[in-house]
Amino acid sequence: MSDTRRLQVLRAIVEDYVHTREPVGSKALAERHNLEVSPATIRNDMAHLEEEGLIAAPHTSAGRIPTDQGYRLFVDKITEVRRLSKAERRAMDILAETADDYDSMLEQTVRLLAMLTNQVAVIQHPQHVTARIRHVDIVQMTPQKALVIVILSSGKVEQRMVTLAEAVSEESLHHLGQRLSEQLFNRSSSALPIPVDTLITAVEPDLQPAMAVVANAVQTILESGRVDRIVMAGTANLARSGGDLGPAIGPILEALEEQVVLLRLLHEMQQDQRGLSIRIGQETSHESLQETAVVAAEYTPVENHGTGAKLGVVGPTRMDYGSTMSTVRAMARYLSRILSEG
Amino acid sequence: MSDTRRLQVLRAIVEDYVHTREPVGSKALAERHNLEVSPATIRNDMAHLEEEGLIAAPHTSAGRIPTDQGYRLFVDKITEVRRLSKAERRAMDILAETADDYDSMLEQTVRLLAMLTNQVAVIQHPQHVTARIRHVDIVQMTPQKALVIVILSSGKVEQRMVTLAEAVSEESLHHLGQRLSEQLFNRSSSALPIPVDTLITAVEPDLQPAMAVVANAVQTILESGRVDRIVMAGTANLARSGGDLGPAIGPILEALEEQVVLLRLLHEMQQDQRGLSIRIGQETSHESLQETAVVAAEYTPVENHGTGAKLGVVGPTRMDYGSTMSTVRAMARYLSRILSEG
DNA sequence: AATTAGCAGTCGAACTTATCGAGTGCTAAC
DNA sequence: GTTAGCACTCGATAAGTTCGACTGCTAATT
């Protein structure tokens, strides 16, 4: 028994099924792919594949479809990560030019990823962990309200409104901002907590209450920066991808809106040697995502592995893994590059 | 012929249909609502209503369902805007406490609105038009890159990365920021364009190229602030609301992701005397939204009518208008209040 | 003029039955 | 290890049937 032909058969099944959305039978396989053997032989192979749990038959008299394990093997051993098409490269290059601020950068990228893959795309907001404090600014909004703004080396700008116990002059606020900037400059945002007490005693007594409020706000900002967030695009692709997922689409959307689920999942996923992390069907270990697969890759502005955030797509298990994988990986590399450049 | 009873019949049809999702017949109506007339009489009324185009029968031998015009009449003349339940009030109050920065404020609100109405909720980002420049800040990121930050009186913080032709010291950048702050302070963000030339000539010659870049960035920021944006939540509710919208859900999601469509629609909608704007079915004049209705209301931090942004929900035409309308209106008022407070 | 009872007629939904054919597994021959 | 042949399975499709919820109309009633 030729073991490699079995894999060829599996590959053929996956490819055909992905393409036609219908269970594929031995005859069709023999015709469409030049395996150079008869349908009967293929049937034997299919029987083996079924025993190993790689494919399954919806009904006795129907063709076979890949199981989650089948897709897994396909993804791990069989498929090759494609090269990008010129059009895809072009789209990315164009994107690079129109990017200005941080948030819209991510937003545009996630849209592009959704378009290119025809799937739901997600990007995890980079965490602050490695970012350093670049500047702190305090702006008076009303006599008793002020906006505390923290700018990080990553280019991210965080803000928070605070209410002061009593009115503080604009100059004083500015002064406080300068103090904070000096004291916290280049401090890693993950080195917590900031020395609030020291900061307070370092200013004139009459400003100490204000400083307390403001310093706490900075602290809160840094903490909330560690909370993950996600930007998403292309949810319409879920529906468009056909009655494929059928009525399950509702729960999937719910799970996606429930960002926590996705974040946990992304967090758990380990990158393989190809620079991709993939979860298929039950591997997502989430009820509503049984019929979906997640293809993700890390992107990091610098070479600090482990803290990098992820980006990826969510689609039906029956997806074109080859092209999805390559697009996701390319997009991750691309985003890393852009972010490193500034 | 009692004209008011006809309306009662219409109301009953709308209510029953919204509740059961099934065409409602004369017999069922006579039983469930105490109209005190026989089914035959109701049939006569229904014939009239059908003539007027307010209801229609899917098949000859089926009950009637309201047409878009039927819903419209129902909304305009019949339904009353309900009061909020205690639970709803509570949810809003809790929200008020957890709000800190601008964006997450809107995000939380839109989620709450989606939850309360069980529909897709949208909030239009407030436009800058009435906001004034509060502060401009420039922070060095790398020797040749700087982040330009504009803080508006509304509390919104806008940012943009710029690349300088040649390295500029941190102090010089700061200096430029101060100049811009002074010159542009309290300038309405809609008063355009800013006097770039004047600003440039007001600084030392060696800083003029940098000033040019930076001033242009500010200009761009102010302009982009006039571009509308939308935050959205609860897309899963679209699917959950049952096969109701059926396969049409895909195009609807697409239309929603295409924010432009929604923005145009919201823009066109005029608020009625109750403080609500509603579009039903074809009134949306958008292909994919034929089966949906939009209920929106303006919210404004201050009493500058006309420039206020809108918030609302998108759902199937077959929705509970009464409760949706009240929730949307309450949320608009609530958001106005929060934003006015700071 | 409005209301009502009665009744014939319509038509989709749901159920039944029959047919068709793609696909399988098995056996025996190559 | 491969292949041809064959009996068998079973879902999908089509066609036919029944059932019942409704309607619209007419004629009687208030």
UniProtKB/TrEMBL annotation, chains A, B:
Output the Pfam families linked to this UniProt entry: HrcA, HTH_DeoR
Q: Where is the Heat-inducible transcription repressor HrcA C-terminal domain?
A: 103-325
- Give the UniProt record's GO annotations in the biological process aspect: negative regulation of DNA-templated transcription
> According to the lineage, what is the superkingdom?
Bacteria
User: Do the record's keywords include Cytoplasm?
Assistant: no
Look up keyword Nucleotide-binding and say if it applies. Answer: no
Q: Start and end of every HTH deoR-type domain? A: 27-59
User: Member of which family?
Assistant: Belongs to the HrcA family.
By its UniProt entry, which HAMAP family does this protein fall under? HrcA
User: What's this chain's function?
Assistant: Negative regulator of class I heat shock genes (grpE-dnaK-dnaJ and groELS operons). Prevents heat-shock induction of these operons.
Q: What is the protein's given name?
A: Heat-inducible transcription repressor HrcA
